[in-house]
Amino acid sequence: MSNDLAWAAGFYDGEGSTFLQRPRKTVKLILTVSQKDTRVLLKLKRILGGGIYGPYGGRPCAAWILQGENAYQALMAMWPHLGAAKREQAAVALDEWHDRKKRYT
Fold first, then answer.
1. I need a labelling partner for 100 at 20 to 30 A (CA). Which of 19, 24, 37, 80 fits?
2. What are the extents of the domains in the chain?
3. What is this structure's pTM?
4. β-pairing, 16-21 with 51-53?
5. Residue 101 — pLDDT band, cuts 50, 70, 90?
6. Measuring CA to CA, how many Å separate 105 from each of 25, 27, 65, 74, 101?
7. Would you say 52 and 63 are in contact if contact means Cβ atoms under 8 Å apart?
8. Residue/partner pairs of 15-24 with CB below 8 Å, 24 or more apart
9. Class of domain 3-104
10. With bands split at pLDDT 50, 70 and 90, how would you rate the model's confidence at 16?
């Protein structure tokens, strides 16, 4: 495993969120990190992909966001290095994501 992936997993473990967006019958798996310092978000983007959005509306933070299958692949790559709390959060989202994908595809 590269040092960059280890860094990304540690940073995401401390600062990131795993959740689902549920538009109608579909569901999107989303990984996100918000930060004032966009340099760390650019490093996440370089390592894992995704995009950087913001800051908007006078808020000081921008967000790194990765969605769908790309989010799943990144999460699986980081999985061995995530702590228990982040794994639990991700497992809940992954269970529903897989379940909905089966129902609507």
1. 80
2. 3-104
3. 0.86
4. unpaired
5. low
6. 10, 11, 24, 22, 6
7. yes
8. 16/86, 17/89, 18/75, 18/86, 18/89, 18/90, 18/93, 18/94, 19/93, 20/93, 20/96, 20/97
9. alpha beta
10. very high
